[in-house]
Design goal:
The complex is a heterotetramer of chains A (about 550), B (about 100), C (about 270) and D (about 260). Chain B is about 30% helix and about 35% strand. Chain B has helices spanning about 55-65, 80-95, and strands spanning about 5-10, 20, 30-35, 40-45, 70-80. In chain B, strand 2 (about 20) and strand 3 form a beta hairpin. Chain C has nine helices and seven strands. In chain C, a hairpin with a 2-residue loop joins strand 2 and strand 3 (about 65-70). Classes of the chains: A alpha/beta (about 550), B alpha+beta (about 100), C alpha/beta (about 270), D alpha/beta (about 260). Chains C and D meet through helix 2, helix 3, helix 4, helix 5 and helix 9 of C and helix 2, helix 3, helix 4, helix 5 and helix 6 of D.
């Protein structure tokens, strides 16, 4: 006879070991290290909630402080390796394996840890892919999550930043893992139930509110004429042309520029209600003027954005909000929505090769991808048609499918001497050096339908073959090594055939690309547009 | 240190007036463009970011291939990208016409 | 609903600020970029010069009266003053005084956006500031000297001293006026003294609203060209004499830093 | 030689010995009326005061109390008296209290006091005996019609203290020295400052704290002459016209000429 409930038995043993620190499901923040040392066993899979916004930082700091003699060889599961103590886990021998999505601020230190053999990377995932594996072959033994409030029953309220908490908790709780939540405060009655209490085992009140970054705030003051020119091209050459209504935007200044010219340039073109009506994106402050001007019907968000709480709560027709009025975000569902239900993704990259493969990896850094690859691909499981989706195919066959519009928006050079277009991505060498079986490509070239630079647009989906794709890309790659290979006669032909368009081909007047076209030119203007509801974080204030 | 580059391109078309655009600020550049009696465009670039003569040559060659204007052009650069330079060139031309 | 977004002064460059402060169509720049009065001192220090040395001097009229605007360009080296730019400002003030003595007054507006003295020209900048201070005080005996501080840099260092010598100082909420920039105080005295990354604190201490409440500025206006122009005209019409600067009331400086600030109405 | 006593105090005590001390000033501002060769003179110096109220202004910096103190000392100058600023100021005070109160106003008050005194007929001279840094020098010394200085390595004229320049520019001493040699305006030594035409007289002293009787006599003679011959009444702008300034300030002169020429189109 074999036992069928070993996971449950182990879970009960873990909680029993920590019992002396716990009263009614709650322990003190000062006991966090001791509780983790009691609950954890060497080799455990530990999922730490940490993404590019919300961080369970009390718990990650405690985890980095456990005795490596007692707790070692953990397998860390984490969306974003963003905090210094995440890397300390490897340095101190507490964790020896990691599966993750993104490591932005720690990418240099992570590469060093890999080189030193202190940690083995299982794989670099997209968010959705990592979450999916929590339910298949990477189910956590322990989950360390963060919330705003808990009540006596363990119900959690996560405010605007629900993000991935329900996903992590679900994967852990329903396979007899232990769920530990740090909360900012314990209340009699939670404002709203975002995670039901019987999915949560232990609660701790953090010594300070969880760490959160205003990652999606772009100060309009820093948007320049070149970005505005590119934004104008996108509006005319892509959104207007394909009647793009459902979409996702990246977090760059160039996409912020698009958001800010909708109420001016877009309005003049008579496109309100015709394009950009339904969005999947965080509450970008730069979207406020478009929302206020009646462009936006709905926005579903991966997470919240600091300072946007009151504004979002006052616009429940647009945002997904709870009964309490505040935003309900959900990273897994929003990634899914962005993948399957939007016609267009537009984002940026650091490097692009002649086949339009792109990567944000640079030598010496292991940065990962985040959500872009989920949004920036063509989901071949899609079955609902739309005008934009169907326009991406020229097939007239009785069996045909459309295609997601995937746009890469880049300047030909990042800094004066650093070209965006390169013969070979750094990712290739990086992958080889780190021993990855595949190079860490963010968006594969064959998923990319349009590339926009300050020179023009390459309509890659129209190219008849690989050679024409390369020629189209070279035609807009400026004076980069890739662009210098462009043949001007060929470029003229491509323009005539509509595979390449320069601003003048799109009716975009270069001289109009001025900051005066922005509906808001400062954070202050955004506050004005919001009627005082937007409360920008300190670092963005100039008053 | 400052690198000074000079370029000359054959040119025939004339511009009506001189033009001043841009600013010497990080990632930006200042352009002074004046009509020239010579049948050429002569360009002086002073830049605080050295080592990119071929990039400058390519940006300027493309511009003067499109607009064969007989001018004297001075560029003072503080690390402008080719995109910014190209945009300033277009703006200067627009002013000069 | 589209709210009223101001016709921003801060958004304009120095030349456009001068142009829009003057009556429409009257802007005439002196020593314009084509005069190529560049600083010869910068190249040796790896810094590219600018054709106007970061200072625009323009003649025109203001409210129909002869006028001159001297505007510094906060984007070029933070609007800091070197020999040429400093001389442009000093000369404008001296010429306006000559005009006043001749009975043909020229209104002067100092549209400053400047971090102070340009480190690359150090002592030449210092000499220029001393000359400008004297020239403001001398011109003031004939007519008001009006400063507009409404750019993104604000005024610091020697230029804040010059500003304090003007009869009228027009500020916006976004303006900053101080002797030492918060980053300089932080470098010299530590973040415990002044955390320059705490932007709300920076504005609470040095911002336009605070300076107006303290009486250091004579007008607080929205960052909207019509409002700023009206304030400038007002200042000349009002023609208020300069009020000698007296030691103000302030809390006991021996108080611990935070207590001092709180006692002074600043929540750190 | 002792640096226990600041240079400012040492020279103040030498020149103003036995003079009537002006009262109502903070401990860091010294002012006294003592004749120089029969000419009534108000001597003013700023000195370190370890017990000063402002914690960031105890080492001789120009802070709120110092600047308003100097302004009061200048405004209180007796009729027919000249003024001599003895300059040894390491810079302005760097503190949040100062910024909150508005140190620029305090410095402007003393600048204005000097300008008003000079323009109403009080000859003003400055003697740089030590450091003359930035806003502190602007507020105490630079409005003088005549500026003399000790020809001494301890005399330091600049817009920033030496360590601050190193921090801000992130440059090594060697690089700063090279730049100083190419651009004298960025040098700190008094000879370089004099090369800008900014100094009317340099004085050699063996001990910058304690001149010999001969050295003192030469200095007093020059100072007295400057206060009598009208030099002390010249505004800073006129410094440009002195022979020593013609070449080094040629650009500033040219700017003035060209602006004047184009002033009325």
């Amino acid at each position: 006879m074999s036992a069928w409930d070993t996971r449950r038995i182990r879970k009960n043993q873990r909680l029993a070991r920590a019992a002396s620190y716990v009263r009614s499901g709650v322990f003190e923040s000062g006991d966090a290290v001791a509780v983790l040392e009691s609950v954890l066993e060497p080799g455990d899979r530990v999922c730490v909630e940490g993404n590019n916004q919300k961080q369970a930082d009390l718990l990650s700091r405690a985890l980095a402080s456990v005795d490596p003699e007692r707790v070692h060889d953990l397998h860390l599961l984490i969306s974003v390796l963003g905090r210094p103590e995440h890397i300390e886990l490897f340095e101190r021998g507490i964790a020896s394996q990691v599966d993750f999505s993104f490591s932005g601020p720690q990418s240099l230190r992570l590469a060093q840890q890999v080189a030193d053999g202190r940690v083995r990377i299982g794989a670099i995932h997209t968010y959705l892919e990592l979450f999916a594996r929590y339910f298949v072959d990477l189910t956590p033994d322990i989950a360390l999550v963060a919330a705003d409030e808990a009540d006596a029953s363990g119900n959690l309220y996560t405010g605007a930043n629900t993000e991935e908490t329900p996903t992590i908790v679900e994967a852990t709780a329903f396979r007899n893992g232990v769920v530990i939540a740090q909360v900012n405060r314990i209340v009699d009655r939670v404002t709203r139930v975002d995670v039901p209490g019987d999915w949560v085992d232990l609660v701790v009140v953090a010594d300070r509110p969880y760490e959160i970054e205003p990652l999606f705030t772009r100060d309009p003051e820093q948007i320049d004429d070149v970005q505005i020119l590119m934004a104008m091209m996108v509006v005319r050459g892509i959104y207007e042309r394909h009647r793009v209504r459902t979409l996702n935007h990246g977090i760059g200044f160039d996409t912020a520029a698009i958001e800010l010219i909708l109420p001016t340039y877009g309005e003049r073109l008579g496109l309100r209600g015709e394009i950009c009506t339904n969005w999947v994106l965080n509450p970008h402050p730069t979207l406020i003027p478009a929302i206020e001007s009646g462009w936006v019907q709905s926005v579903h968000s991966f997470g919240g954005e600091l300072g946007m709480e009151r504004y979002v709560a006052a616009r429940p027709d647009v945002f997904f909000t709870g009964r309490d009025g505040s935003l309900r975000s959900n990273r897994a569902l929003s990634q899914n929505a962005g993948m399957y239900a939007t016609d267009l993704f537009i984002g940026s990259t650091l490097q692009m090769d002649p086949d339009a493969n792109s990567s944000t990896a640079t030598l010496g850094r292991i940065a990962g991808f985040g959500g872009a690859p989920n949004l920036g691909n063509d989901p071949r499981g899609r079955r609902h048609p739309s005008q934009a989706w169907l326009e991406m195919t020229s097939s007239t066959h009785e069996i045909r499918r459309g295609r997601k519009i995937v746009v890469q928006l880049v300047e030909t050079f990042r800094e004066s001497g650093v070209p965006t277009f390169v013969e070979h991505l750094d990712a290739v060498a990086l992958g080889r050096m780190a021993g990855f079986p595949i190079a860490p490509v963010m968006i594969y070239g064959d998923d990319v339908t349009h590339v926009v630079t300050e020179e023009g647009i390459a309509y890659l989906y129209k190219a008849r073959d690989v050679d024409e794709r390369r020629a189209a890309l070279a035609a807009i790659a400026g004076v980069t090594p890739v662009g210098l290979l462009a043949d001007s006669t060929r470029t003229q032909e491509l323009r005539r055939d509509g595979v390449v368009a320069f601003p003048e081909d799109l009716g975009v007047v270069r001289g109009e690309a001025k900051r005066s076209l922005l509906a808001a030119r400062s954070i202050r203007d955004l506050v004005t547009w919001s009627g005082g509801l937007y409360e920008p974080p300190k670092r963005f204030r100039s008053w | 240190m400052i690198e000074t580059l000079t370029f000359t391109y054959p040119a025939s078309a004339h511009v009506a007036r001189r033009a001043h655009v841009g600013v010497v600020a990080s990632g930006n550049c200042e352009l002074l463009l004046e009509p020239s009696p010579e049948p050429s465009a002569s360009v002086t670039v002073r830049t605080s970011v050295g080592g990119y003569a071929t990039t400058w040559e390519a940006v300027l060659a493309r511009f003067f291939a499109r607009h064969s204007i007989a001018v004297r052009l001075e560029i003072d650069d503080f690390g402008a990208t080719p995109a910014v330079v190209a945009m300033r060139l277009e703006q200067a031309l627009e002013q000069a016409r | 609903m589209t709210p009223h977004i101001g016709d921003s002064y801060a958004e304009r460059n120095a030349r456009e600020r001068a142009r829009t402060l003057l009556d429409p169509g009257t802007f005439r720049e002196l020593l314009d970029p084509f005069a190529r009065m560049r600083s010869p001192y910068l190249a040796a220090q790896g810094v590219v010069s600018q054709s106007d040395d970061g200072v625009v001097v323009a003649r025109g009229t203001l409210g129909g009266v002869r006028a001159c605007v001297a505007a510094t360009d906060g984007r070029f080296l933070g609007g800091a003053i070197g020999e040429i730019g400093g001389a442009k400002i000093a000369a404008s003030l001296e010429l306006a005084r000559r005009d006043a003595e001749r009975g043909t007054p020229t209104r002067v507006v100092l549209a400053f956006d400047s971090g102070g003295i340009r480190l690359q020209e150090a002592n030449l900048g210092l000499l220029a500031i001393a000359e400008i201070c004297d020239a403001v005080a001398a011109l003031r005996t004939h007519q008001p000297v009006v400063a507009v501080i409404a750019g993104r840099v604000g005024v610091y260092g020697g230029m804040s001293i010059v500003t304090a010598l003007c009869n009228e100082v027009i500020v916006t909420e976004g303006a900053r006026v101080g002797l030492n920039g918060p980053d300089v105080v932080e470098t010299e005295a530590g973040a415990d003294e002044f955390d320059a990354s705490n932007r709300p604190l920076v504005w609470k201490v040095t911002g336009g609203r605070r300076r107006f409440a303290q009486g250091h500025a004579t007008a607080l206006v929205a960052d909207d060209m019509p409002d700023i122009r009206a304030a400038v005209e007002d200042a000349f019409v009002r023609n208020r004499p300069f009020v000698a600067i007296e030691r103000p009331e302030f809390p006991d400086p021996g108080l611990e830093r935070e207590a001092f600030l709180r006692a002074y109405g600043i929540t750190p | 030689m002792s640096e226990e006593v600041s240079r400012g105090r040492a020279w103040f005590e030498r020149f103003a010995a036995g003079g009537a001390r002006a009262d109502g000033l903070p401990a860091s501002v010294l002012a006294a009326d003592a004749p120089l060769d029969g000419l009534p003179v108000r001597w003013i110096a700023v000195v370190p005061a370890p017990q000063a109220r402002f914690p960031r202004a105890r080492s001789g910096e120009m802070g709120i109390d110092e600047a308003f103190g100097v302004a009061a000392a200048v405004r209180g100058v007796p009729p027919n008296s000249a003024i001599v600023a003895l300059v040894d100021v390491p810079g302005q005070a760097f503190g949040i209290r100062e910024e909150a109160i508005g140190l620029q106003r305090a410095l402007a008050a003393s600048v204005d006091a000097y300008v008003q005194a000079r323009r109403s007929g009080h000859p003003v001279a400055a003697l740089i005996v030590g450091k003359a840094i930035s806003g502190a020098f602007l507020a105490h010394g630079m409005q003088a019609g005549w500026i003399g200085a000790l020809d001494d390595p301890g005399v330091d004229v600049h817009v920033m203290s030496e360590p601050a320049v190193a921090r801000v520019t992130r440059m090594q001493r060697g690089d700063l020295a090279r730049i100083a040699s190419e651009v004298p305006a960025t040098a700190r030594d008094i000879a370089s400052f004099a090369r800008l035409g900014a100094i009317d007289a340099l004085f050699e002293v063996a001990d910058p704290q304690a001149p010999t009787d001969e050295e003192y006599a030469a200095l007093a003679r020059a100072l007295g002459a400057a206060l009598r011959d009208g030099s002390g009444l010249r505004p800073p702008g006129e410094r440009l016209n002195r022979p020593a300034a013609i070449q080094p300030r040629a650009l500033a002169r040219r700017v003035r000429d060209e602006l004047a020429a184009g002033w009325d189109a």
